[in-house]
Design a protein that fits this description.
The complex is a heterodimer. By secondary structure, chain A is α+β, with helices and mostly antiparallel strands. Chain A has three domains: 34-133 and 191-238 and 245-277, Aldehyde oxidase/xanthine dehydrogenase, a/b hammerhead (Aldehyde Oxidoreductase, domain 3), CATH 3.90.1170.50; 284-459 and 603-767, 2-Layer Sandwich (Aldehyde Oxidoreductase, domain 4), CATH 3.30.365.10; 466-594, Aldehyde oxidase/xanthine dehydrogenase, molybdopterin binding domain (Aldehyde Oxidoreductase, domain 4, 2-Layer Sandwich). Chain A is built from 18 helices and 30 strands. In chain A, the strands form seven sheets. In chain A, strands 2, 4, 8, 12, 13, 14, 15 and 30 form an eight-stranded mixed beta sheet that branches. In chain A, strand 20 and strand 21 (479-486) form a beta hairpin. Chain A starts with 5 loop residues before the first strand and ends in a 14-residue tail after the last strand. Chain B is an alpha+beta fold. Chain B contains five helices and five strands. In chain B, strands 2-1-5-3-4 form a five-stranded mixed beta sheet, with helices on both faces. In chain B, helix 2 (85-92) crosses helix 5. The chains are: A alpha+beta, B alpha+beta. The interface between A and B is large, with 62 and 55 residues.
């Protein structure tokens, strides 16, 4: 029961775009996603979740479920043998609810049965008595004195203060604005799933789709009361991630059931349960004040950003830090007063999603930049260029940006792209509303908008951010071949391809195999924060250098052992015949590699070398808006991004396209609609993500300005495309309509005078399992 | 109830619950797990297969409705170890990242190209409106479809 080893002998070195080594398996259907895992005799797990966002549990009766034929276990929090809570930064989230409910969908009990339907029905026979309490559903209200506390100690998760320059600075031109960001879902296509197998040694083997195997392992082990060595995690096939798999979902639950029953247990969420089973992007409420000289130079920015973390902490502290440290954008501003808050509420827990913290702030600061440009009667690109940060600029944290920061160049590139063709009013498909035939173009107006973004790459604030890689070079059938082993999660981004390219380039061998990711090797850290190519790529490169040194030592090369010695490739250096002779026994190295250290932020001033690398992208959006119906068509996105080094240009382009699609979704359609702590649209019929018809052409300029501090000069690429695409689209809609638009996603009623109705009543019970029946539809595309 | 389905050229008969969906028949009875379930609501298209040569979302078809008919899944496309042109085009054009949507996308394109062997880009997009992808932004999927049409012609 292990994932297949992925082997590729297709050539492809750094800078090439070889085909994915897992591509053949994925197109033929041989690739095993975590939802495909199967063992004879396995049981199915189901989760009973709270229908209420805030309640006391006054009674819990499992007898009806236990009595059902085919049921093997019914577990509550009392059955958790170890720590009853878990969490990425602080274990504040119950494995199963302990006497109270803090969000709708909180797990209350688990069932294992011999059939998924039996498990689901048994969950429905568990009798839970709730005493409902009014939910704390507004993040700013949660900070007000006297607000009820979601957790002991109050509702403030973290307050990040950044102070730079004169807090009382004044300026000739001042603009203020208040902005809101709705709750976006990662909406990966493969719902949460995994298989837990009890082991003879009292431990458990878990096969699961995740982003960070070792932190999963440590949390699972703590709650099971097991030594971490007894919890072995192997990456199952991952159907997308985007941050949603950085926190646990079914991991502890499946292991609990497996250890309790002594049988393998599979859990596989439905789409509806998936919406309740992972964290989302933090909604934000932001207030900005920008001061500028009459000549168009920014003098100060004052801002406060409130991020709704929902019921549990997850990664909220890091999100708050990103919003604070990146919250004025890629601009030079001498005076900054920034306060960012992450707070607890009774809304769904929020955590990691692509670009976290930076996405919310970017909508705020870029909206302000347009507003200021208008106040100054300046061109919005020219105003940005005039204030753009560059290499050597100082961040509000005092950190000097010590590699390329081509903000002005990126803006000019997108501005100077030729405009897309005028719309063809004879072709309905090219109009907002498309084939729905909602307009013949009579009320359609076009607009153009810009956005530029900054994002930190890797983990920040002094986090010990490292990866571990083992590289083994040996003879296979008389030919040299390399194996790479890490615990880094391939989540679709193409890490396995890039790791192979690195090994081919470093060792000069064609046959390279990436072994399944598991916890038998040291941590690789998370597949998040645009960091894996940088950090695990760095570890693999270092392990290759070690292998090369070993072989050169065998060959008696005096240069052996010199870390600076980097011949183009072993085969090239020693000759293939020599290499074969040198590999009488395999050469192997395991290396733990760290990027240069970062430092914590000063709690009073937010000063510190908090980030390891910054990444930048710019976007120009062109939109058509039907002003009668409020429908938007994004006509084209032009983008420019500095990637340092395009390790695999085709994969980089894929990241950029995909990120833009998610940024478009946040701009005009994607929102988990939460009312009074209750999710109104937990399905793909009601939570809309961009279709192939929504996705505009992308015109891409890719810069490769090497970062001297990073392996190969590379710069993380995954997140920036999803950051400034959103404000660019909203700016284009403003340009078309003249409507201020202070909230995303922009809905049709924001562009017309109509108001939506309130939507349906919440459900009375929530029973999760495979094929949980879909509930009432909710006002699509509103 | 008893259903007999010709799956990827093999006849298969099984006793199933009346309400069993075709996708669960394929995954749990026939053991063909390439066909993925992404949404349960006919929104995402990850479960797209061919039923008598036409694409259907197998989460919205009962196994009973497939009785006496032929189903092709992505596992049935390749012949003698040779990838189908659409599969090869996906692989070569980087038409996938996580790949969860890929089996459904591939089957939808196979169906589309049968109806229209030389589609324009707009026709490809119109034909794939019912298949969601969260990773790629779709452009490389369109390239793959057009490349497959090119190869086939």
């Amino acid at each position: 029961m292990t994932a297949p080893t992925i082997t590729s002998i297709r050539a492809g070195r750094i800078g090439d775009s070889p085909q994915r080594p897992d591509g053949r398996q994925k197109v033929t259907g041989e690739f095993a996603y975590s939802s495909d895992l199967w063992l004879d005799g396995m049981l199915w797990g189901a989760t009973l979740r709270s229908p209420h966002p805030r309640a006391r549990i006054t009674g819990l009766d499992i007898t009806g479920a236990v009595a059902m034929p085919g049921v093997f276990a019914v577990l509550t929090h009392e059955d958790v043998p170890g720590r009853e809570t878990y969490g990425l930064e602080r274990p504040d989230q119950p494995v199963l609810a302990i006497d109270q409910i803090r969000y709708q969908g909180e797990p209350v009990a688990l069932v294992a049965a011999d059939h998924p339907e039996t498990a689901r029905r048994a969950a429905g026979r568990i009798r839970v008595s709730y005493r409902e309490e009014p939910p704390l559903a507004d993040a700013r209200a949660a900070l007000a004195p006297g607000a009820p506390s979601v957790h002991p100690g109050g509702n403030l998760v973290r307050h990040v203060r950044v102070r730079r320059g004169d807090p009382d600075a004044r300026a000739a031109v001042v603009v203020t604005g208040e902005y809101e960001v709705g709750m976006q879902d990662q909406a990966f296509l493969g719902p949460e799933s995994g298989l837990a197998v009890p082991a003879a040694d009292g431990g458990v083997d878990l096969f699961v789709a995740t982003q960070w195997l070792h932190v999963d392992r440590d949390q699972v082990a703590a709650s099971l009361g097991l030594d971490p060595d007894l919890v072995r995690i192997t990456l199952g096939g991952v159907g997308g991630a985007f941050g949603a798999r950085e926190d646990l979902s079914m991991q502890i639950h499946a292991c609990l059931l497996a250890l309790h029953t002594g049988k393998p247990v599979k859990m596989s969420y439905s789409r509806e349960e998936s919406f309740f089973g992972h964290v989302h992007r933090h909604p934000a409420s932001m207030r900005y004040e920008h001061g500028c000289s009459a000549g168009g130079r920014l003098v100060y920015v004052k801002a406060d950003i409130v991020l709704d973390g929902g019921a549990y902490m997850s990664s909220s502290p890091a999100v708050a830090a990103n919003a604070a440290t990146l919250g004025i954008g890629p601009y030079e501003v001498p005076n900054v007063v920034m306060d960012s808050y992450a707070v607890y509420t009774n809304n769904p827990p929020c955590g990691a999603m692509r670009g976290f913290g930076a996405v919310q702030a970017c909508f705020g600061y870029e909206s302000q930049m347009d507003k200021m440009a208008a106040a100054l009667s300046m061109d919005p690109v020219e105003f940005r260029v005039r204030n753009a940060m560059r290499e050597g600029s100082v961040m509000p944290t005092g950190q000097v940006v010590d590699s390329a920061a081509p903000v002005a160049e990126l803006l000019r590139l997108v501005r100077d792209r030729p405009p897309p063709p005028a719309r063809d009013t004879g072709d309905l498909r090219s109009l907002p509303g498309g084939v729905s035939n909602t307009t013949h173009g009579e009320a359609v107006v076009r607009g153009v908008g810009y956005g530029v973004s900054i994002k930190n790459v890797g983990f920040s604030e002094g986090f010990d951010d490292y990866s571990t890689a083992r590289v083994r070079l040996e003879l296979t059938g008389g030919e040299p071949s390399a194996q790479v082993h890490t615990a880094a999660a391939e989540v679709g981004q193409g890490l396995v391809t890039v790791l192979e390219q690195i090994v081919r380039s470093e060792l000069g061998v064609e046959r390279v195999a990436v072994l399944p990711a598991d916890t038998t090797i040291g941590s690789a850290g998370s597949s998040s924060a645009s960091r894996q190519t940088y950090v695990t790529g760095g570890a693999v490169r270092a392990a290759c250098a070690e292998v090369r040194s070993q072989l050169l030592a065998r060959a008696g090369d005096p240069a052996a052992g010199s870390p600076g010695n980097r011949p183009p490739g072993l085969a090239g250096a020693a000759g293939l015949g020599d290499l074969v002779a040198l590999l009488g026994k395999p050469a192997e190295a395991t290396v733990t590699w760290r990027h240069r250290p970062t430092a914590p932020l000063d709690p009073g001033t937010g000063q510190g070398q908090a980030h390891v690398q910054y990444a930048f992208a710019a976007h120009r959006a062109v939109v058509d808006v039907d002003t009668e119906l409020g429908l938007v068509k994004v006509v084209e996105i032009a983008t420019a991004q500095d990637v340092g080094k395009a390790m695999n240009p085709q994969a980089v382009e894929g990241q950029i396209h995909g990120g833009i699609a998610q940024g478009l979704g946040l701009a005009v359609m994607e929102e988990i609609q939460v009312a009074g702590g209750v999710v109104r649209n937990p399905s793909f019929t009601d939570y809309l993500i961009p279709t192939i018809l929504d996705m505009p052409p992308v015109r891409l300029d890719m810069l490769e300005l090497a970062d001297p501090h990073a392996p190969y000069g590379l710069r993380g690429v995954g997140e920036p495309p999803a950051i400034s695409s959103t404000p660019a689209i909203v700016a284009a809609i403003r340009d078309a309509t003249g409507i201020p638009l202070t909230r995303i996603p922009v809905r049709p009623e924001h562009l017309t005078a109509t108001q939506p109705d309130e939507g349906p009543d919440p459900p009375s019970a929530m029973i999760m399992g495979r094929n949980a029946p879909h509930r009432v539809p909710f006002d699509p595309r509103s | 109830m008893k259903v007999s389905v010709r799956v990827n050229g093999h006849d298969m008969t099984a006793d199933v619950e009346d309400r069993m969906l075709l996708v669960h028949f394929l995954r749990d009875v026939a053991g063909l797990t390439a066909t993925n379930v992404g949404c349960d609501t006919t929104s995402c298209g990850a479960c797209t297969v061919l039923l008598d040569g036409e694409s259907v979302k197998s989460c919205t078809v009962l196994a009973a409705q497939a009785d006496g008919r032929a189903v092709t899944t992505v596992e049935g496309l390749a012949g003698n170890g040779e990838m189908h042109p659409v599969q090869r085009a996906f692989h070569e054009q980087h038409g996938l990242q996580c790949g969860f949507c890929t089996p459904g996308m591939v089957m939808a394109i196979v169906s589309l190209l049968r109806e229209n062997p030389h589609p324009t880009e707009e026709q490809v997009r119109a034909g794939l409106e019912g298949n969601l992808c969260r990773c790629t932004g779709y452009h490389n999927i369109v390239r793959a479809a057009l490349a497959a049409a090119e190869v086939a012609s």
